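Cross-posting from the modeling subforum.

Setting up a comparison between two proteins and wanted a second pair of eyes on the formatting. Protein 1 (sequence, then structure tokens):
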Amino acid sequence: MPDQLRGVTACVCRGCRAGALDAALLDELIVDLDAVKAFMEEGNEVLISFDKFVPFFDLVIAHTPQLAAEYGIDLRELDEDDFEGGGIVSLRRHLEAQKTILAEAS
């Protein structure tokens, strides 16, 4: 995993487990994901072990409905099986959904 994602993903994992995510942390991860995607789109190679990253994807994606239930937010528009565009696109959608949930709940 690129170094710029390592620290943020660790914080998000701790936040998911502790139920203490905030919009700023989610924004930081989204910015990092976008930077990696842009770097790749420029033709650069990024070596990410998706086998090591999948548990993180699973944790974030599983946290979305838990967060929504905690704050009474309806997630009908978020399809859990939507992997069109790859795992990073799905992960980003869940991070955006979590930011929306936190914004609506505050």
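Protein 2 (same layout):
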Amino acid sequence: MKKVHLYVLVFCNLAMSCESRKFKQYDGYANSIKSDCFYGFTQDDKGRFFTEFLIEDLANNQQIHPNHIESAHYYGFNWMENGLLHAVGFIDMETIEDLKLKQTGQHQAVKNLVAQYVKSVYRNQTKEEIERLNEILGGELLETGANGIEKRKNANQKSGSDIYRNEYVEIKEINDYTVYNLKSSKLHTVIGNVHLILTAQVGPYGNVEESLSLELAKKLATKMGTVCL
């Protein structure tokens, strides 16, 4: 029995019976990787699948230290290897329902809507796109009152540090779509109808080893693809 299966059994026994948990079965549209089990980790349980047991292989027998902020559903781990800090973490998860994506009309030919969404949002921007975004943030959103504040908040969440830094590297042939940002150390991987937002970093903030971080991100994305197998 694979490790992940053992983990699911242990988790169900500790938290509640598997019968009462009732993982949602979701067929999706055109998914090459199973994502059903992620639907069992939503709301208060979001991110709880991201355990030391799940990522221990990445640490190469080094001592792993937890770094969680459970109130924010952040689950992270770090370890020292070859004198360098290694850190991985779960940040957030979005389902096709969260994103309100539907396979209708013009999207009928799209193989995976979540992958298409992530590919279109988390990517390197052209000079013109960056200039336009700066105009929006500096001009159209300079409104007063609660409405303006909310618009700026939403724009900042969408743009964030990721979009401003054209440092995205597409990682091919891992899951349904995977991309990594070398500057923010954020990893976006699509598994079926689920978008996982993770972090993978080697080296301390301000002195990150980008090539090693990319390799860690690839390993982490590959590991995520095994969660529901």
